[in-house]
Amino acid sequence: MSIALYIIVMAGVTYLIRAIPFTAFSKKIKSPFIQSFLYYIPYAVLAAMTIPAIFYSTGNVITATAGTAVALILAHVNLPLIVVALAASGTAFCVSVFI
Amino acid sequence: MKSQFLKGNLHGIPIALGYLSVSFGFGILAVKSGLSVLAATLISVTNLTSAGQVAGVGIIAAGGSLAEMGLTQLVINLRYALMAISLSQKTDKSFTFGKRLIASYGITDEIYAVASSQPEDISASYMYGLTFISFLGWTVGTFLGAFAGELLPTDITNAMGIVLYGMFLAIFIPPARKSRRVLLVVAVASGLSVVFKYLITVVSGGFAVIISAIVASALGAVLFPIDIKEADDT
């Protein structure tokens, strides 16, 4: 399938999700269920995307596990996103040099 | 008007710097998945979102269907709808319908976070400024990652593959630590995702993420509904 088609669908859906509510909604959603569902969605999506994929993200389970462990510790103590992200990568790199 | 744009630029500098390094990882990931430098950059130009783009590249690499692509983007980026609704209450009278259509493009987690934390209602120019500099960081980073990813040693590009996932961990771990119900939702979503990966392998990656996320969030919404005021505060 053509890459362009994929990109058009990706971009179109992503844009409409932002534009429709931003232009159309002037009142807040009242349903507690939908409100709660939307509240949980980002965390659920990120968790499902990250686990177990993160362990295969470097092409080597050992370096990826080391990077994940460091990221977990740093995320646990609330360090900024970029610090956690780069430390995970730095750790994976350092471990790959030694194995 | 001009100063509002500049103010947006200024407030967007930390976002742009963060995006620059994260999108560098995305560029590498995209090229590793078989995309061209142009395709990787075009995706960043047209989407301006991290999680959706990573999932999208996975679907392209796996030769998934367009329906799978559309549904995946819908579910992963659904949070933007919530942010867009929230932000639509915080706009000043400079926001005409046309300007809303343009500004919609820039609603990301980080831009939303900065825009919504302003003490006064935001203007369209401010939103444009904030979006413009963030967009630069995101697309330039993607291009460099996709381009240099082919030149860098494999040890380095392999290690960069974890950057975005590390950022995702940093987004969902702190709230999961603070709140038991977020922890439950995160645990259920991860658990289901693992089950799909190793046991129900007939379901493709994109749908596995959608199903895991919807089931976990619906479970959370049924067991622990949040009240609206609370959601605004976090």
Outline of chain A, from the CA principal axes? extended
Cα separation of the termini of chain B: 31 Å
**Range of strand content of chain A:** under 5%
- Total number of distinct structural domains of chain B: 2
- Number of helical stretches of at least 4 residues of chain B: 13
Residue-averaged pLDDT of chain A:
90
* Main sheet specs of chain B: none
Estimate percent helicity of chain B: over 70%
**Low-confidence runs of chain A:** none
Give the number of DSSP strands of chain B: 0
Q: What is the 3D shape of chain B?
A: globular
Structural class of chain A: mainly alpha
Explain what this protein looks like in three dimensions.
The complex is a heterodimer of chains A (99) and B (234). With 99 residues, chain A is an all-alpha fold. Chain A is 76% helix and 0% strand. In chain A, helix 3 packs antiparallel against helix 4. The termini of chain A are far apart. By secondary structure, chain B is mainly α. Chain B folds into 2 domains: 159 residues, no CATH class; 55 residues, no CATH class. The relative contact order of chain B is 0.16. Classes of the chains: A mainly alpha (99), B mainly alpha (234). Chains A and B meet through helix 1, helix 2, helix 3 and helix 4 of A and helix 1, helix 2, helix 3, helix 4 and helix 5 of B.
List keywords for this structure.
heterodimer, A: 99 residues, mainly alpha, extended, B: 234 residues, 2 domains, 13 helices, globular
Summarize the structure.
Chain A contains 4 helices and no strands.
Describe the secondary structure blueprint for this structure.
The complex is a heterodimer of chains A (about 100) and B (about 230).
Chain A: H1 3-24, H2 32-50, H3 61-76, H4 81-98
Helix pairs in contact in A: 3-4
Chain B: H1 2-32, H2 37-47, H3 51-62, H4 66-76, H5 78-88, H6 97-103, H7 109-116, H8 124-148, H9 154-160, H10 163-178, H11 180-198, H12 205-223, H13 228-233
